[in-house]
């Protein structure tokens, strides 16, 4: 279940490598969608969703645990 770079408009369907067309997706979701567009696969565009802001620190507490 590793994260990977995914094209919102699939590259094979004319999607570019521009940042505006790239999102992070789990490999299973990316592989499962294949060459389908978001509309064809009935998925919402993740770029239109508000970010989830919570207390998760991205595990920085572990990376910085040795710094004191």
Radius of gyration: 16 Å
Span of the ends, CA to CA: 33 Å
The geometry reads as elongated
β-sheet strand percentage: 5-15%
Walk across the major sheet and give the strand order: 1-2
Total strands: the figure is 2
Helical element count? 2
Question: Fraction of residues in helices?
Answer: 10-25%
Low-confidence stretches: none
Query: Mean pLDDT, nearest integer?
Result: 87
Order of helices and strands: EEHH
Helix/strand/pairing class, anyone?
alpha+beta
Largest sheet: 2 strands, antiparallel
Plain-language structure description:
By secondary structure, the protein is an alpha+beta fold. The protein contains two helices and two strands; from the N terminus they run ββαα. The chain has a two-stranded antiparallel ribbon with strand order 1-2. The longest helix is centred in the middle third of the chain and has 7 residues, at 27-33. The mean pLDDT is 87.
Any chance you could write out the topology, listing elements then pairs?
Elements (H helix, E strand, L loop, with lengths): L2 E5 L14 E5 H7 L26 H4 L5
Antiparallel strand pairs: 1-2
List keywords for this structure.
2 strands; alpha+beta; 68 residues; elongated; 2 helices; two-stranded antiparallel sheet
